[in-house]
């Protein structure tokens, strides 16, 4: 790490912010395992509701129980601690509203997924795994396609970038980069947080670049252009499509694991299915995170070569790390298990080596 980029105090402050968050992951995992094991032991077949009704009720029960059991942890880490560190800008009531929305969306998606899996198990007791694996992979692609227009608006409001000069600059940049876009959207993230971000989401016709309104307040026009160039790099290099393919393969592997463990799914097997998914996430998470970090490095180089502005890149990366309090020297295990992006020092070193 270049000692001129971040001071010792900045490194230590980021460490103090992140270390409890890593420990909390183990606590959350223990809570999840405890809840699903309890539900597995005390749950009933709910035969009187029919197989479809039982599957839907089990999905609602498991999701709600897990979310309620984790609510104190979420409140501490996602609201009270974020407020104490100066990040959260919303009221506790608004935060609870977001949690309720999340639970609602998860219940609906979980119920549909479990209904489909149990239904396939009933229709094809011996070889349900094949259509289920294909369906799971298809659902991953479908959700990524519809998420920008169906799921994301539940939590944020989006508007076109209003700065005409900046819009023209970004659209021209997209043409130059070989990744033309119809528009760059702005999300109203400031009603929740002071942190800054931008991302690309969707597939095909739903693909779009989104910047948080906090980012527009934090950097100048060249900085915004560099961040957008990074997101355009993801599009130009087909990273979203590649990660979607990886996610589809992972979903199919999870279904195969369910076939091995559960054999034929019934409604009350959902707690056991959740345990299988947790183990799969632990095993598949690190290689997927490594793939994501590789794509982030490629997008960084794409942005640097497209804009040709190393100084702007350095300013933006240091600003992002300071504004979001990114972990500058994470524990090795946390890095390999959790980090979908390289650290800020890694990104700066890569840029300087390839400028």
Provide structural commentary.
Helix 1 runs antiparallel to helix 9 (270-307). The chain is built from twelve helices and four strands. It has one domain. With 355 residues, it is mainly alpha-helical. The radius of gyration is 22 Å and the shape is globular. A four-stranded mixed β-sheet has the order 1-2-4-3, with helices on both faces.
- Radius of gyration based on Cα positions: 22 Å
The biggest beta sheet is recorded as: 4 strands, mixed
What would you call the quaternary organization?
single chain
* Total beta strand runs: 4
Count of domains: 1
Q: How helix-rich are the residues, as a percent range?
A: over 70%
SSE series: HHHHEHEEEHHHHHHH
**% residues in beta strands:** under 5%
Uncertain regions: pLDDT < 50 for 5+ in a row? none
Q: What would you call the shape? A: globular
Euclidean distance between termini CA atoms = 17 Å
Mean pLDDT: 92
Brief overview:
This protein has helices spanning 8-42, 50-84, 92-123, 129-155, 164-177, 213-218, 221-236, 239-262, 270-307, 310-324, 332-338, 344-354; strands at residues 158-160, 184-187, 198-201, 208-212. With 355 residues, it is mainly alpha-helical.
Summarize this structure as a short list of keywords or feature phrases.
355 residues; 73% helix; single chain; 4 strands; mainly alpha; four-stranded mixed β-sheet; 12 helices
Write the layout of secondary structure elements.
Elements: H1 8-42, H2 50-84, H3 92-123, H4 129-155, E1 158-160, H5 164-177, E2 184-187, E3 198-201, E4 208-212, H6 213-218, H7 221-236, H8 239-262, H9 270-307, H10 310-324, H11 332-338, H12 344-354
């Amino acid at each position: 790490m270049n000692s001129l980029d971040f001071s010792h105090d900045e490194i230590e402050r980021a460490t103090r912010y992140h270390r409890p968050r890593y420990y909390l992951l183990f606590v959350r995992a223990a809570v999840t395992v405890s809840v699903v094991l309890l539900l597995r032991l005390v749950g009933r077949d709910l035969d009187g509701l029919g197989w479809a009704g039982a599957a839907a009720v089990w999905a609602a029960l498991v999701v709600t129980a897990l979310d309620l059991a984790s609510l104190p942890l979420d409140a501490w880490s996602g609201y009270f601690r974020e407020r104490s560190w100066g990040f959260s800008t919303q009221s506790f009531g608004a935060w609870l509203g977001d949690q309720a929305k999340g639970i609602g969306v998860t219940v609906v998606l979980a119920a549909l997924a479990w209904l489909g899996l149990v239904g396939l198990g009933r229709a094809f007791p011996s070889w349900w795994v094949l259509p289920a694996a294909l369906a799971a992979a298809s659902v991953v692609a479908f959700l990524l396609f519809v998420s920008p227009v169906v799921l994301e608006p539940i939590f944020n409001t989006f508007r076109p970038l209003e700065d005409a000069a900046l819009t023209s600059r970004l659209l021209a940049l997209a043409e130059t980069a070989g990744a033309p876009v119809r528009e760059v959207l702005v999300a109203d993230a400031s009603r929740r947080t002071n942190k800054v971000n931008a991302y690309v989401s969707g597939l095909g016709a739903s693909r779009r670049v989104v910047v948080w309104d906090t980012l527009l307040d934090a950097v100048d026009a060249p900085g915004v252009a560099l961040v957008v160039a990074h997101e355009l790099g993801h599009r130009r290099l087909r990273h979203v499509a590649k990660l979607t393919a990886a996610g589809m393969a992972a979903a199919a592997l999870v279904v195969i694991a369910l076939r091995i463990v559960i054999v034929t799914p019934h409604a009350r097997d959902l707690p056991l299915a959740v345990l299988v998914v947790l183990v799969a996430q632990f095993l598949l998470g690190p290689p997927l995170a490594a793939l994501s970090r590789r794509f982030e490095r490629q997008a960084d180089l794409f942005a640097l070569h497209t804009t040709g502005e190393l100084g702007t890149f350095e300013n933006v990366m240091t600003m992002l790390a300071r504004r979001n309090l990114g972990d500058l020297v994470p524990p090795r295990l946390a890095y390999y298990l959790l980090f979908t992006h390289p650290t800020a020092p890694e990104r700066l070193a890569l840029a300087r080596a390839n400028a």
